[in-house]
Amino acid sequence: MRTIAFLTQKGGAGKTTLAASLAVAAAATGERVVALDFDPQASLARWGKRRESANARHIVVVEPLEYDRLPRLGMMIERLRAAGFTLLVFDTPGAHTGALGLVAECADLCLLPARPTLLDLEATAATFAAVQAAKRRAAFVLNQCPPIPRSSRASEAAKDLTQLGVLAEPMLSARIDYQDAIAAGLGVTEHAQDGRAAQEIEALWRWVLAQLNAIESERQTPAQPAQQVSALKERLAGIARAPHLRPTPG
Q: Which overall architecture, per CATH, does domain 2-223 show?
């Protein structure tokens, strides 16, 4: 089971909207998805309730995560893994709390949404520093950009975020489909499958999946112990001294 956490110290960046639609996009590709809502406002949990009567095409299990359950977070993740879930998505509050560090430590990939405004960029930079301290992989998600080609505001924000760290692809535009989908208890790919917003979220999921696969590959590549490296060097030296590899006189 892979784990994604949406984090930022500023509210209004679109964490819940992105968490909901990305979870649905992942489920559409065969992932068994569970989403945990750590935000006291419980916006994602309410979306999950609306989803129960929305005739949604894909299954996403949504559960609230109360603050007093955080010390048992590791155990909860193991139980979800044992239950057969393949992807866990965290939605977190838009405030700086020590609990965000606990969530970050459990995440394979931390996604940091930010709108193209100075206040958002400053808040996201602070969150990025906290994630780096937890030694987790992180990427910025530039969200709610002006839906016009070659927006200078979005381009400048992308440039600033790229100087800090990795910027997820693509940049996401401010489109009404996102809000309508949340209100209906759907992901944007279910609400308007052929719309621009749906295409953006599908592209974002492909990018996220590639990052998760890369992280998993890195973990599965065993580091060679020092004695194995030494033995390999000796073997290479022996091969170099082999008679058929020596220069022919004259």
A: 3-Layer(aba) Sandwich (3.40)
